[in-house]
Amino acid sequence: MNQLIAALTSQLPAKQVITDSLRRLAYGTDASFYRLTPEVVAVVESEEEVQSLLNVVRTQGRPVTFRAAGTSLSGQAVTDSVLALIGEGFATCDISPDAATVRLGPGIIGGEVNYRLAPSGRKIGPDPASINACKIGGIAANNASGMCCGTAQNSYRTLAGMRVILCDGTVLDTEDSASVASFRESHASLVTELQALGEQTRADGPLADRIRHKYKIKNTTGYSLNALVDYADPIDILAHLMIGSEGTLGFISRITLQTVAEDPFKASALVFFPSIEVACQAVIALKTTQVSAVELLDRAALRSVQDKPGLPPTMRLLGDDAAALLIEVRAQTSNTLQLRMDACLGALTGIATLEAPVFSTDPATCEMYWKVRKGTFPSVGAMRRAGTTVIIEDVAFPVESLAAATRDLQALMLQHGYLEGIIFGHALEGNLHFVFTQDFSEQAEVDRYAKFMDDVCDLVVDKYDGSLKAEHGTGRNMAPFVEKEWGKQAADLMRRIKQLFDPRNLLNPGVILNDDPLAHLKNLKPMPAAESLVDRCIECGFCEPMCPSHRLTLSPRQRIVSWRELSRRAAAGISAADVEADFAYFGLDTCAGCGLCSTACPVGIDTGELT
C-alpha cells in the first residue's frame, strides 16, 4: 500500500477508501468525453472528513478533485489522482419557514430540492436539463443555469450564503458573523488581497466595463470575475468567486440559495418559421414580453425527433431552412397567464410563421412540445455509429447576432464533415448548444475535431465576442481557450485568484486554467462497441438516482462503463483479470434487473437486460 492510500486509510473509514481497479474506473467516469482513472477514490461524508482529506493531499502533495453526480460535460470531474466523492452525509436540505431561502448540502439532487419546495410554491433558480440527476454541489460549482433561469436566477445571482472549506482546511461560514470575524483575522492576507483586487479592477474602467459586458449574456468561461465588480466586501467577493470555480478554489460544504416562485399556471407554443433569420427576429421581439423560455431549434434538430410518436406531423413537411421556437409563459394566476400569452402573440404579429402561433395550456400538449426540445440531444446520441461519442458544445452570442451566428455554426459543421450536427438553445440568452458525433479512435479524427474547435473559437470570440462556455462550465474542454476569450489582462487576473486560493495547485489542476494549448485533445474517452443493448449509452448519469444498487456497488452507467472496458480489453488482447473478478459481484450479482434505469435514460436503455 503506497503512502497516499495508507494516509487516507488512517483518516477515513476503510470502506470509504476505494482502490480496486473496477470501481476506480467506474466511479472515475463522468458525462464528458474525457477519461482519467483516479489512483484512489475517497468518499467524504462530513466537513471533518473533507478537512482530513485535504490534510492528506497537502502532506502528500497530491491533487484532489471533488465530484458530486458526475453529470458535467466538460471534463471538470475527472482525475488521475485523488477523486473525492461527495457522500450522502452531504445530502441535506433545510427550508426556511417562509421558503424564501433554502440551505443545502452539496450532495442533494436539484430535483429533490424542488420536490421539497413545491408545496410552498417555490423552487431553486437554476434549472439545468440534468436537474433530476445533478447535485447542488455541481450546480453551484459550475454556475449551472438552464432553460428558464437565464442570467438572473443562477447560483451566482441567488446566492445568500455558504460554508466553504479552503485548501488549508479552514472553514468559512459567510452567514456566521463569528466565523467571518475569525476568518478576517486568520486569513488577513487573503482578505486584504481580495479587497485590493476588487478595488483595482473597479478602478480600471476598461477592464471593469469589459467584465460587465461579458456577463450581459451567459458566461461560465473562466472564474466569475464579475464578483470583483459587483461586490466590495472581500467576503462577498470570495463567496461569489466560489460559484463557477469547479472545485479549483475550495470545497462548498453548504450553500444557501434564495428561492424563486414556481408559477402554477403555464402555457407553451411550438411555432415554426421559414428560416433561422425569421425565428431570431421573433426572439428579439419576444424579449420585450414577460416570457419564461424561448428555445430555438434548427431544422436538423427538428428532423432528429420528427418521427417520434405524438409529435406534430407538420415537422416532417418543413423545408430545409425552417426553424422553430418553443415558447413558454408562466404566471401566478390564469388571468395574468392569458395577458402574457396575448403579449407574446402580439409581439409575433407581422413576423412570418408557417402556421398561426397558438398557445396551449393542456399539460399533455405542453409535454409533447417539450419532448421535441428535450429529445434532440439523446436522439443524436442514440443514432450515432457504435464506437463514437456524442459531444454537446455550449456557446453564447449577443442576441442581435444569433441568426448570423447560427448560420455560421451550421456552415462550420458542414465544412468539417459533421453532417449529423444539430443546433438548439436558450434563445433569449443567445445561448446555443450544438451536438455532433465524434470518433476519437483514430488520429485523423482527433485532428478533425481539433481544427473544428479552433474554428469554433475563432468564430465565437473573434467574430461575435461571445462566450465559449455559456452554462456547462469551462472544464478541461475550454481551459486552453480562456485567455483567447478574455484577453491576457483578465486571464492574468484569474491566475492571481487561483494562486491566492491554491498556491500549490492541488485543487482540480488543469481545469479552468491550463497553459497546455492541446490539453483539450488529451485523455479522450474511448467508447468501444461492447453490446448492442447498451452501445447507445452516452454515460450522462441520468439513470443513477433511480438505481437501487447505486452507492452499494455500481450504477447502470458504471456497469456499462465496466462492460465497455472488459470489451475493449478483450478486443485488444489485454488481460482484464483485475476488473473481471470484481465485475461478477459489483456489476452482475447486485443489479436488481428492475428496469428503473430505463425510465430516466434519455435513450431508453434498460441495463438490467445486459446483466
What labels describe this entry?
globular, 6-stranded antiparallel β-sheet, 16 strands, single chain, alpha+beta, 15% strand, 611 residues
Describe the structure.
Helix content is 40%, strand content 15%. It is built from 25 helices and 16 strands. The radius of gyration is 24 Å and the shape is globular. The protein starts with a helix and ends with a helix.
Question: Topology of this protein?
Answer:
Layout: H1 3-11, E1 17-18, H2 21-27, E2 40-44, H3 47-60, E3 64-67, E4 82-86, E5 93-95, E6 101-104, H4 110-117, E7 122-124, H5 136-141, H6 155-158, E8 159-165, E9 171-173, H7 177-186, H8 188-203, H9 205-214, H10 226-230, H11 234-242, E10 251-261, E11 265-273, H12 276-286, E12 293-298, H13 299-305, E13 323-331, H14 334-347, H15 363-374, H16 376-383, E14 389-396, H17 402-415, E15 422-426, E16 431-438, H18 443-463, H19 475-478, H20 482-486, H21 488-501, H22 556-572, H23 577-589, H24 596-600, H25 607-610
Parallel strand pairs: 2-4, 3-4
Antiparallel strand pairs: 1-2, 5-6, 6-10, 7-10, 8-9, 8-10, 11-13, 12-13, 12-15, 14-16, 15-16
Helix pairs in contact: 1-3, 2-22, 7-8, 8-11, 8-21, 12-17, 13-16, 17-18, 22-23
Main sheet overview = 6 strands, antiparallel
Which range does the strand content fall in? 15-25%
Q: Structural class of the secondary elements?
A: alpha+beta
- Number of helix segments? 25
Overall helicity: 40-55%
The dominant shape is globular
Query: Could you tell me the number of beta strands?
Result: 16
Distance linking N and C termini: 33 Å
User: Which segments are poorly predicted (pLDDT under 50) over 5 or more consecutive residues?
Assistant: none
Q: What integer is the average pLDDT?
A: 94
Radius of gyration: 24 Å
